[in-house]
Amino acid sequence: MYLQKSHSQPRKVIHLALGRVDYHSVYELQRRLHHQRVAGEIEDLVISVEHNPVFTIGRLGSRSSILATEDELACAGIPIYHIDRGGDATYHGPGQLVIYPIFDLRNYGRDIREYIRNLEEVVVRYLTKIGIDAEQRNGLPGIWVGKRKIGSIGVSIRNWVTMHGLALNVAVDKNHWRMIHPCGMDIEMTSIADLISQAPILADVQQGILNELAVIFSLQLICEKTARPLFNNKG
User: Is 183 part of the annotated catalytic residue set?
Assistant: First the structure.
C-alpha cells in the first residue's frame, strides 16, 4: 500500500467536474492550468471528465499502435492526438471516467513512482469496495483484473507539476478498444459493467474514485460547479 504522509489537515483542492467534453478542449485547459500552477498563480486541483471518442498516443508510442485505417477512423468519428504524456496509445470515450490531477509533487513527497502507484491504488481500493478483485503489476502501469486491463495511468510531469492522470472503464464500447493495441500491447480491455451484474453509473464511480483520491493524498476536495467558463479563459 502506497500512502502519502498525512498533512496535519487535509489540503484543500478544487475539483472541476466538467461532464462530457471533447478531448482537445480539456487538453488545452490542462496545459493552461499546468502553466498557471508552475507559476504559482493557482493551487492544486483535480479535473474529472468523460470524453467523446478519441485515441491518444503518448511520447513512447507511434501510429502503428492504432490498428484502424484512416477511413475506419473517419467513419467512426475518432480523431488521434499525439500528446506529451508517457506511454503509448490509449482510448478515451463515453462510459469511461477520466481524472486529471494538476498537482505540485513538491507537496506530495517529490516521488514520481510513488505518485503513479498512488493513482493505481486509488482505483484498486475503489474496485475492491464494489466487489472487483483488481491489482497493480510491477513494470506494467495501470490496473488489472486477471489478464485484462480495466484502468490506465499516463502522466506528464514538468517542474514537479503533473498533467494527465488515470482512466477507468465503467461501460466502454469494446469495438473502439479493438481498433488499437492499448499501451502498445496485445491485451484485452475490460469494464466494470463486464464484471459485476449491477454496475454503478459513471457519476457514482466518479464520487467513489474521488473519495479514495482524497484519502490517499490527504485532500479536502471542493467542487467547482462553474468550470465551463475556463474554456474561454485565455489568460
Answer: yes
How many angstroms separate the CA atoms of 44 and 217, rounded? Answer: 12
Q: Are 192 and 78 in contact (CB under 8 A)?
A: no
Whole-model pTM: value is 0.91
Q: What's the average model confidence in pLDDT over 7-12?
A: 79
Residue of 78, 183, 205, 227 marked catalytic = 183
Q: Cβ(50)–Cβ(99) under 8 Å?
A: no
pLDDT in tens, 90-134: 999 999 999 999 999 999 999 999 999 999 999 999 999 999 999
Distances 45 to 15, 42, 51, 116, 204 between C-alpha atoms, Å: 6, 9, 19, 17, 20
CA angle 121, 124, 127 (to 5 degrees): 150
Task: Decide if 85 contacts 155 (C-beta within 8 A).
Answer: yes
Closest CA to 187 of 177, 195, 196: 177
pLDDT-based confidence at residue 228 (cuts at 50, 70, 90): very low
Q: Which residue ranges form the domains of the chain, and what is each CATH number?
A: 11-230 (3.30.930.10)
Task: Kindly list the distances between the CA atom of residue 51 and the CA atoms of 134, 186, 213, in Å, as whole numbers in the listed order.
Answer: 24, 24, 20
How far is residue 54's CA from residue 79's CA, in Å, rounded to a whole number?
Answer: 5
Cα separation of 144 and 136, whole Å? 6
Q: What Å distances lie between residue 72 and 66, 92, 176, CA to CA?
A: 11, 17, 11
